[in-house]
Amino acid sequence: MQLTAVRCLRRILNSPYDPYYPMIKSHNWMKRERTFRYTAWSYGAERDIYKNAMRRLQKIFLNRTIQAKDDFPLEKHWSQERVIAGLEEHRMEYKHFRNMLDESKIALNNKMLSQLAIYEPRTFKSLVLLTKQMAFDEGRPVVMSPKPENVMTEGKLFSDEPIPRKYIYRKGPAQDHTTPPRKLKPEEY
């Protein structure tokens, strides 16, 4: 629908508002109140004055964004540290444990393994005993417990080929932004 001069005049004449009474402007109270809810714990002018509260709020959001970028790498780091601590309790190295889990096709990531080590220590211990026995059968240097454990590691339980590890692609360009990213191979799609 095209806005012509006649239609524009009709909009003015047929308007529900009185032409001699000013239109009510919307209040910005709700917007300010929402901002003050975020900055209610601040001190002084950052709590009471809208301009200073907005500055404080922008700083809060900026710090939260920076922290959110660090969350995933830190989560990966601490979950691996927890798994290593659980393995030290059972006297096993992380690299042998991880390799034996891949060979036995047990697809658990470090986050799940760390939760097993914390909340289900018996399940984690049985996983460690299984991987220890497998590593011992392959001739790797592992410290076996003095008392014998009943761990079955027959050849028919596990197939020869381990599950391939997931490749994690780096996000974004290179650090200096000078080298373009390489083209993906057909098997990487």
Automatic annotation (TrEMBL):
Region (Disordered): 168-189
Keyword Ribonucleoprotein: yes
InterPro entries in the cross-refs: Ribosomal_bL20, Ribosomal_protein_bL20_C
Transmembrane stretches, start-end: none
Keyword terms, alphabetized: Ribonucleoprotein, Ribosomal protein
One of the protein's GO biological processes: translation
Gene Ontology CC entries for this record: ribonucleoprotein complex; ribosome
Keyword Ribonucleoprotein part of the UniProt annotation: yes
GO molecular function annotation: rRNA binding; structural constituent of ribosome
Family under the similarity heading: Belongs to the bacterial ribosomal protein bL20 family.
Name of the protein: Uncharacterized protein
